[in-house]
Amino acid sequence: MENTNHILSFELLCAAQAADLRGPGKLSPAGKIMFDAVRETLAYMDKDKVYIDDMEELKARIESGEFVKKWKMPWVNC
User: Fold this and answer.
1) pLDDT tens, 1-51?
2) With contact defined as beta carbons under 8 Å apart, do 16 and 38 qualify?
């Protein structure tokens, strides 16, 4: 599960970077929630840097269940 969360954190980072390039205003409501959650931890990267500590923080937030809680909206009956 830990490896899955590591991969998910990387995928979310890539998706957030792509959304910044395309325009976050084009995201779905659920996509915007995830984008904002990622950007609370990792700002847009406009230059190369070592970001392993940021990725670990993002992974910890995923493991805590925070992202699932943020995503649950009134229209979702779970």
Assistant:
1) 778 998 999 999 999 999 999 999 999 988 898 899 999 988 999 998 888
2) yes
Please check whether residue 61 is in contact with residue 67, taking contact to mean a CB–CB distance below 8 angstroms.
yes
Q: Quick check: helix, strand or coil at residue 11?
A: helix
| Any domain includes 7 | yes
d(CA 43, CA 22): 16
pLDDT given at position 3:
84
Q: How far apart are CA 57 and CA 71, in angstroms?
A: 18
Range of the domain at 32: 2-71
Nearest to 33 by CA among 2, 69, 63: 69
Give me the number of domains the chain comprises: 1
pTM: 0.80
